[in-house]
Amino acid sequence: MQKLLYLLLLILFPIRGFCGGLSAWTEQTPYNNSLYYPGTGNQITFSSNQINQEVNFTHFYFYHGYIIAQNEEEGFYLINEKENTIQSFTEQQAWKQEIKEKGLNPLLKRLYDSDYSSFFGTNMELGILVLLFFPFPFLFPILWIIALITIFFKKQQKRRSFRKVFIILYPSILLVLYLLFLFPQSL
């Protein structure tokens, strides 16, 4: 009887759930403009206080004060955040030519299609570091502390050079990861 009641409630009162707002985000760009994602679809919106134009795109990267963005349906964009200008292109070849002329081809492109507060962006060119740290998120700090403590013991001289390298290398890698998180620009 209880199952029949639940079935009757589901049929009589259908409830639609929308969870798009839970995944929505707004971020500030390096030059204090806004990127907004409503949580549904794949469109990211760029807006600025100085420019009275909003631009929608699906993929983008930061480089030398520009946001280089593309939207295969609407066009291609070069957004100069320093001078507050937007160049729109309908053809990809013209857009790529302008990128080449302005020297906006980074050595390491951090291409984003989502919230760029993630470490590596979409293309995961630095993903090898994630593979390096993923299985051992708590083991490496513990090993680092042990290496730091045992480097001063005279009985443990066999692997002292390895410990020195590990003591320096581990915080260095963490610092690089933090800087990549802090500055989303391409290199």
Question: Could you characterize what this model shows?
Answer:
- The chain is an alpha+beta fold and 187 residues long.
- 34% of the residues lie in helices and 20% in strands.
- The strands form 2 sheets. A 4-stranded antiparallel β-sheet has the order 1-2-3-4, with no helix packed on it. Strands 5-6-7-8 form a 4-stranded antiparallel β-sheet, covered by helices on one side.
- Helix 4 packs across helix 5 (160-182).
- The termini are far apart.
- The relative contact order is 0.10.
Q: Summary?
A:
With 187 residues, the protein is of the alpha+beta class. The chain has helices at residues 2-12, 92-102, 127-133, 139-150, 160-182; strands spanning 25-28, 34-37, 44-47, 55-57, 59-63, 66-71, 75-80, 85-89.
Number of helices: 5
- Sketch the major β-sheet: 4 strands, antiparallel
From the structure provided, what is the oligomeric state, counting identical versus distinct chains?
single chain
Shape: flat
* Arithmetic mean of pLDDT: 76
Radius of gyration: 24 Å
Strand content: 15-25%
Order of helices and strands: HEEEEEEEEHHHH
Counting DSSP E segments of at least 2 residues, the number of strands comes to: 8
